[in-house]
Amino acid sequence: MDFSKIPGVNAISTIIIFLLFSDTLYAQKIVRYDLYVKDTTVNFTGKLKRAIAVNGQIPMPTLTFTEGDTAEIYVHNELNEETSLHWHGLFLPNKYDGVPNLTQMPIKPHTTHLYRFAIIQNGTHWYHSHTGLQEQIGMYGSMILNKKKEPVIPTVPIVLSEWTDINPKNVHRMLHNASDWFAIKKGTTQSYAEAIKQGYFKTKVANEWKRMTAMDVSDVYYNKFLINGKNESQLSLFKPGEKVRLRISNAGASTYFWLTYAGGKMTVVASDGNDIEPIKVDRLIIAVSETYDVILTIPQVKPGAKPTAYEFLVTSEDRTRSASLYVGEGIKQLASPLPKLKYFEGMKMMNGMMKMNGDLDDMGMNMSLNQMDMNLVMYPEITGPLKGKKIKEMGIPAEMDGMKMDDKKKPMESGHTDHNMYNSNVLSSITTLNYAMLKSAVNTSLPKDAPVKELRFVLTGNMNRYVWSIDNKVVSESDKILIKRGENVRMVIYNNSMMRHPMHLHGHDFRVLNGQGENAPLKNIIDIMPMETDTLEFAATESGDWFFHCHILYHMMSGMGRVFSYENSPANPEIPNPKLAQRKLFADDRAFHFMAENDIATNGNDGEAMLQNTRWSIGTEWRLGYNEHHGYEVETHIGRYIGKMQWLMPFIGFDWRYRKMGMDEVETNLFGQRNTKDKRSILSAGVNYTLPMLVSAQAEIFTDGIVRFQLERMDIPVSKRLRMNLMINTDKEYMAAIKYIFTRNAGVTAHYDSDMGFGVGLTLNY
Amino acid sequence: MKSIKILMAVVLLLSALLSKAEIKNVSTENVKISGSCALCKEGIETAAFDKNISKASWDRDTKMALVTYDNKKTSIDAVLKKVALAGYDNDSYLAPDDAYAKLADCCKYDRAVKKEVMAEKKMPEHQHEAMASAEKTTPADADPLKPVLDAYYAVKDALVSSDGNTASAKATSLVKAIKAVKMDQLASEQHMVWMKVMKDLDFDADHIAETKEVSHQRDHFSSLSDNMYKLIKSAKPSEPVYYQHCPMAKEGKGANWLSQIPAIKNPYYGAQMLNCGKTTETIK
Predict the structure, then answer these.
(1) At what angle do helices B164-180 and B188-210 cross, to 10 degrees?
(2) Inter-chain touch A428–B271, beta carbons under 8 Å
(3) If you placed Cys at A660, which of A225, A402, A464, A628 could pair as Cys (CB 3.0 to 4.6 Å)?
(4) pTM of the prediction?
C-alpha cells in the first residue's frame, strides 16, 4: 500500500494529529476526534483501486478513550455519497449508535455529524461504517477504551481486514447471481473431474442430489489480508522475554481468521472487550467483528545471543492467504502455515448433515458454542493429510474418549457417531479456543427478579440464491421485536443454514450461557456454526431501536437481521421522518441484482438477462438466429420464489417468436399439439421446480392451449473451468453446451441446439 | 471451423509468448541458506523458483545462494520466506519446526541460530524438571526404575507425534537409562522380572534408536511396551501408570502401551487416530 502517492494526505494527517493533541491538552474529560472521510486510491495488489480513507489512512485512526471520558467525534463526510459510523460494542444513547435509517439519518455528502457520548465501559472495541458496503473498502478502525488503571504491559491495537480488487457492489451482485468466479480463484470449484481424481465421485453426486453446489467456508475471494493495513509488518521494539498484549479486532467484512503464534501458546485474556479468566491456547478463530485480547510471550534467548522475532500468523478461514506480524526484532521465526482444506471431506460431511428437504440434521449431537467443529473433517492438521481414500475408510473411530469407552463396543464396530468426533481439543494435541472455555473474570448474573422474555430464532439461508434470513424472513419482511426495559431477554438461536453466522447485537453485551454459571462470559457477537444452538441473555436497560444482525457484510445487506425495539421509547430526534427512514432501511434487502449473459456464436446469438431479489425474479432469454429460417425468439418470465429453499417458482411469462420455415411446415410436440412457431406472440403461466441434481423442471401453459415441459441443468462443473449445460423439452427441442471460463466476464462456448445446429462462440457475462 | 482456427492461433501465440518470457526487472542477491546435501539443493531451488519471477542457485559448500528475482513482482524477503517454509533457515527467516522435521534425513542441517534460542527457551522447563526429579530422587527410597519409565514415556510421546527423529533420539536415552539401572537397588520380585526382560527391553530400544522410520519403531514399541508393563507391574510406581490398549494397532491384532496420563494419545497412529484406545489397567 502506498499512500505517499496521494499528495497532501500526509500533510493533512499531521495537521489533524496536531489538532487532536491541542484538544486533549485543554479538555481533560472531553476527548475530541475529527474524522475526515474521503475517497482515496490504494494499491494493495499492483492495481490502483478506489477505497475510502479516514484522515488519510486505512484502517481508520485508532480512537483511544479512558473510562469516564466523554467522546466527541466529528465526522466530516467529504465523500460524494452518504456515510455513517457505528461504534461496535459500545454502550451509548441510541441516537449515537450509527445505523443509518434506524438510529439516525445518513450523514449526507459534504456535511459534518457529531457523535457525543460518555464512555461508560472499557475494553477492546472497534468502529466502522454501517452504510452500504463501505466497510469493505477501508472504513474500519480500532477503538480502545482503557480502564482508569490499565495493567502495565505493552499493548498494540490490531485491526484485521481483507482486500478485494473487485468493487464490493459487484461482489455483492456476483454472490447473488451464484457466480462461481470466487470458487475458481480459490480453487474450490469441486468439479466432477476433481472429485473423480481424488476418489470422491459418489460424494459429489450425493451432494448434487441433495441440491447443493460446491461447499466452502467463506463466500468471497480476497486478494490480500491485512493486519493494521499491511500484509506483513514487524514490531521490532519488543525484546526477548517480554510480553505483548494484542488488542485484536476482526474488521473483515466476511472473513474469519485463524490466529496462531510461532513463539508458543497464546494467552487469551478478553473477548469483545470483557475480561475473562486467562486461557492458554495454541490457536483461536476470530469471527467477523469479534475482538480478543491476546498476550504473546517472546521466548528468551541466551545472554548475548541475537534476538528472534516470532510470527503472529493470521490466516483466513478458507486458508487461501495469510497476513503476518513479526513480534520482536531480528531474524523471523515462521509459524507453520495452515494446510489447505480437504473440501471433499467437507462435502461428505455436509451430505451427511443435509436432509432432502434442505433442513440440517445434527444427528442428536446438540452442538453449541463452537466446541464441535464439523469443519475439522477438512483440517489436515487434525484429521490427517489428504491421501486418497485410505484414510477416509479407516476414518475416525466412533468413540474417541478413551475414558468413557464401553468395553462391549469396539471402536470400529459401533456405528453411531460420538460427540467428540468433531471436538478438535479431544482429537488432537492442538488446543483450540471455543466459547465454552470463556469464563468471565467477574460475576455477570442478571437481576434475579426481572421478568424473562424468551425469543427463539432460527438462522436460515439459501446459498444457491444467496438469501440469508432469520426464521425465513429478511429485515424488510419482519416486524420489530418489542422488548421492555427492565426485563431479561433470553435468545435461543439455532443455525439451520449451511454457513456460520457471527450474530451481533448493538448497544448491549449478552451473557453466553456456556456452563460457567455466574461467570458466563459477556459478548456482543457470537459465532454460530451450522446446526449449533446457543442461548444468550441480556438485561434490557436501554431505550430505542437496536439492530441485531449477522455481521458478514453481504449477509447483513441481504437482510439477515432484526430490530429490537424498546416499547414506549421517546422519539429519536435524529429520525425526523420514521416512515421514510424505514423505507430506506428496507431498501437494502429489497434491492434487485442484475445479471446478463450473451453468447455470440457461429450459429446464432443467444443469452439471458435477469433481475432478482430475495423473492422475485424477472428473467428474459433470447435466441436470435442469423437468418429467418433459424428464427428469433424471446421468452420473459416473472416469478416469485416460494419456500425456504426457494426450489419452487411459479411465474407468468410472455413468449414471442418469429421463424420462416418451409411452406406449411408445422411442428408437433410430444402431446400431439401442433404449432407452426412461425409467428407467435403469446402469454403463459407456469412453474419452475428445482429437482435433485439441480435439474430445473419447468411446466408452462400458453394462452393458445399449448403445454410445454422442460428439463434443464445449467453449469454442471465438469472441471475447474469447464461447465456443461443440458436442456430438453416436449417441443422436441434440445440443447447441449460446454463452456470454458476464461475470465470473470468471458468464456468460450461450444453448443448444439436442435433449432440452430452446432456453433462455437464467445460468451460474455455480467 | 473458422473460429477454432482463430482460437488455435491465439493459443499458439500465447504459448510462444510465455515460453519466450523470462525474469524482468532483475535483481540479484547473495544470501546464506542452511542446508547440507544435494537433496537440500533441490529443495531450496524448487522453493525459490517461481516461473519468470524468481530463481535461486545454491552452493552446498559455501551455503550461499544466488537469488535472481523480478523486483517489481517480488522481493528477496518473499523468496526467502518461501525457502524457510520449505524447511531451510536463512538470513531472514527460520523455518517452522514441522517444516524442518519433514526434511529428508541427509538434509537435517545443524540449526545453529535456532539452537541458541531453543536451548534457552527450553531452559526453564529443563531446570524445572531437573529440580523436580532431584527432589524425588534424593530420598533413599527413590524408584530406581523411574529414569527408565521417563525415557520410555519420551519415546512414546515422540511416537504420538509420529516424529521418527525424536523417537530415535529418545530411544537412545532409553538405552542409556536401561544400562544405568543399578540392579542391587531393585526389590527381589522386581529384580527377577528385570533379569527376564532387560535384554528384550534393550533390544527393542536399540532398534527404535537405530531407525527413523516410524512404522518400524512402532513394531518394536509394541513389544517394548509389553515388557515395560511386566516390569512396572512388579514395581510400585511412585505415580500412577495407565496401561492402555488400541484394538486397531498392528493391523487389528491390537497393541498396548503405558502412559503417564489417563487421556488416550495413541502412539501407534499419532494424529491419524490419536484417540483410539482405552485404559485397561491403572497401576498404582
Answers:
(1) 150
(2) yes
(3) A628
(4) 0.79
